[in-house]
Specification:
Elements (H helix, E strand, L loop, with lengths): L17 H16 L5 H7 L4 H29 L1 H21 L3 H10 L4 H14 L2 H33 L2 H21 L11 H12 L2 H31 L4 H8 L1 H20 L1 H24 L5 H29 L4 H26 L7 H30 L1
Helix pairs in contact: 1-6, 1-7, 1-8, 2-3, 3-4, 3-5, 3-6, 3-15, 4-5, 4-6, 4-8, 6-7, 6-15, 7-11, 7-12, 7-14, 10-11, 10-14, 10-15, 10-16, 12-13, 12-14, 13-14, 13-16, 14-15
Amino acid sequence: MTSLPRGRYLDRATPPHISTLIVLTGLGAMSMNIFLPSLPGMAAYFNADYALMQLSVSLYLAVNAVLQLFIGPISDRYGRRPVLVVSLAVFCLATLGCILAPTAGIFLAFRMAQAVIVAGLVLGRAVVRDMVPQDQAASMIGYVTMGMAVVPMISPAVGGLLDQAFGWQSTFILLLVAGLAVLWLTWADLGETAQTKSTSMRDQVRQYPELFASRRFWGYCLSATFASGAFFAFIGGAPFVGAQVYGLNSVQVGLCVGAPAFGYFTGNFFSGRFSVRKGVNWMITVGAAISTLGMIIPFVLTLAGAHGPLLFFGSVTLVGLGNGMLMPNANAGMLSVRPHLAGSASGIGGAIMIFGGALLSAFAGWMLGPGSTAMPLIVIMLVSSALALAAILYTILRERQVAGS
């Protein structure tokens, strides 16, 4: 049971309202994909290759992963609130730098600095786990990310419209305005939730072997890593597939890139409703199976000669549905293995997830070139989803073996 006081909205002496956690995590999702329809235009603006501008995705994810290794432990040491406030302020400054960048290199430097917004995702989960126990945390994280899913569902379309009307800088102006608004809300509403704080970073590092020795932690972590890998591969390759393979314009690409978010929203709703009743392992298994099925369909039909944007992007919606069921439960499982290291578990697990996503995003971009079809991206996403299913099935098997011994 938590000893935290009852939350009151816009009272920074109490735990935050769920809406504050939604916008915190949603801002990170918005930063991830609102500018994707602008990538071809940005390449032309900076007179750079598309592959170079695509690094704004993969490098962002890589820095995102590294930061998560530190954000969680630092928040365990100093608290969730100060880390979130500082991170949001840095994000706003980095976004301004992106808007004013004169060259592609300077833009990429500020884009990497924007990755600090990952604090919202890492600590949003940790705050939930500070407040409630495991199965309830899975349910609450499901509702938080259900609200968050609305943002990536609509932001690529909004980004495409802004790009077409005002140019690529307009998407980053919107990010700056949103960042300032979320900074104010976090300052006003989010009270400290970390009830105990570690004495030093060194003491926390000494406890890492305890976390790393847990098969449950690795099972949940790898399942989430492979599931998110399928999504990040999609993020890295979908703009090319939409524009170059299927000939869609920036608005259409924005709408199609948002397709999996509709499924993710629905999957998060199922997590919120059923995680307490069914348990995290059941939800993860079903979610991973749905995601895998979602990529088997276009793989088989493409081999049979049937292909097109509706088939590809429609099938990816199933991946979003499965991930929406899997991710909140896998995250709650990771954070519950050692509750006193919830911030560290969120950061380390998130870093592994994002680093894997960065590799797959870059790999997807590398595999797609002149004359490519959608098949390389389909295969990457299929294999990644299937590995997520294998990871949770192995974890369940190990749990049964230990329980039976």
